[in-house]
Design a protein that fits this description.
single chain; alpha/beta; six-stranded mixed sheet; four-stranded antiparallel sheet; 8 helices; globular
Length: 227
Amino acid sequence: MIVFDKVSLKYPYDDCAVIKDASFSLVNGVNTVLCDVQSGKSSLCKLLIKEASPTSGKILLDGEDICGITNERLGILYLPNKPAFFENRSVLFNIAYPLAVRKVAKGERLQKAREIAERLQIPDVNVKASRLDGEMRKRAALARGLAVSRRVVLFDDFFDGAEYIDEALELFDADIKAVFTSDSSLCRGSVTVMDGGYTVFCGNVQGAQRTVEDLVWLYDGLRRDNG
């Protein structure tokens, strides 16, 4: 379990904290962190992957402050909305890359990458990553993530809709899977609702959706305006 214990985050270039005294848990299994657009989803992920450090408070993994845990032992896979690739290398190279970093023999890693690509229905692993469309980029990112076993998987605005979220979640056998989103229709498992940087709800999907109905969010306003 990951516990945010009164965590705040203020960037040096900003006068206001983006995360404010947040306290919630990501339990073993599927979790959702729901908050408005531009309201801290990626900042929470940056704290977890240690690209940023809390201004105050602690983040604990199984009771241990993550500041003292190596990235290798944390075992976090981060999947952003726009995954980065080696654009001029093949899809196969990109999927196999985490294995190459871990010094897995070339033949073994390429074979595993091909098997994963077939499982995710990626038709041409020899094409350059730069030629992939949006959907195939997401599939390639998932495939690359599956190359190495992880303890925690973070989906940061990764899903544009509910079409394949359940399929993607089931791909991973990680202890903790967390979806960071502004779309209440994507809520799964244990849900935390953040508003203005504060934790305003922790509980089930139905309770989270009722909570969001009472909040004034840019995302919900845009969704209503577009029918």
